[in-house]
Amino acid sequence: MSIVATGITKRFGSFVALEDVDLDVRSGGLTALLGPSGGGKSTLLRIIGGLEDADVGSVRINGVDSTRIPAQRRNVGFVFQHYAAFKHMSVYRNVAFGLEIRKRPKAEIRARVDELLDLVHLAQFADRMPAQLSGGQRQRMALARALAVEPSVLLLDEPFGALDATVRKELRDWLRRLHDQVRVTTVFVTHDQQEALEVADEIVVINAGRIEQAGQPDELYDKPASDFVMRFLGPVTTLHGRLVRPHDIEVFGAAVEGAVQAQVARVQRVGFEVRAELELAGQTPWVQLTRGQAEALELAPGRGVWVRSPR
Ligand SMILES: Nc1ncnc2c1ncn2[C@@H]1O[C@H](COP(=O)(O)OP(=O)(O)OP(=O)(O)O)[C@@H](O)[C@H]1O
Q: Domain ABC transporter, which positions (predicted)?
């Protein structure tokens, strides 16, 4: 089920939240809307889902013009950062809810809910109440509930935003695997570039109401269309007046062709990597090396090295 949003403009009073935005999400993909806070990601997601109306523009879901179709009839599943579970219902009933109000046969509901609880690894918690789950388990329940009614598209707004770093990391791996299994067209909002790079097939970078660039993760990382995208997707430093990735700078212990001499100002170890701040003709670029590279170069403050910028 593809999603095509065309010429979307949305204002709140005189504030322009989205300006003439075009988005094309292919069927079965996992697409991240990535960008800084306030850029318009959630607004775009809400417009796709029908929770918000665009002032101008249209939304087509699987070829059908959905612009005027209310949210309940768009057949989309939503998961938000702070998921509103039914507190007085068990995990099982929370997941079954959408099917029960659609008056599906009991046996069918049971089979579907069991299958979903297996899928989100919550089968053993079916009888618990939401308050007895961890944050990560609750978000998995939310995913199961959203998937229960077989939505044509799944819209996730910072689904792991409220969880700590370790659980976030676990859930991203899990979401990737889950998506490989169910293949439902999914759009998720995140401001975390690592999350987008690890999980998404396609990343759409949104800033100040506009799309900066859309493409596959590697494409955006290797060929950013603007300094903004380059900065947003990973660490950068300036060498010879040009924005480059610190790990793309080559460092040598002796003069080689195309390299210029610099002096090591500071060396910092961060886990498995080493960052060295250099002094080079009044500039202070920094480079990122492996521990092995740093040891081979005997990197230490005051040492002279030769650096070559990436092509
Ligand atoms: N209902 C509203 N009324 C007024 N302004 C709004 C409304 N909803 C959103 N905005 C404004 O529109 C802009 C875009 O908001 P949006 O939530 O889409 O951004 P975002 O990129 O998702 O950011 P975040 O990650 O912080 O949620 C923000 O400046 C926000 O304050």
A: 3-233
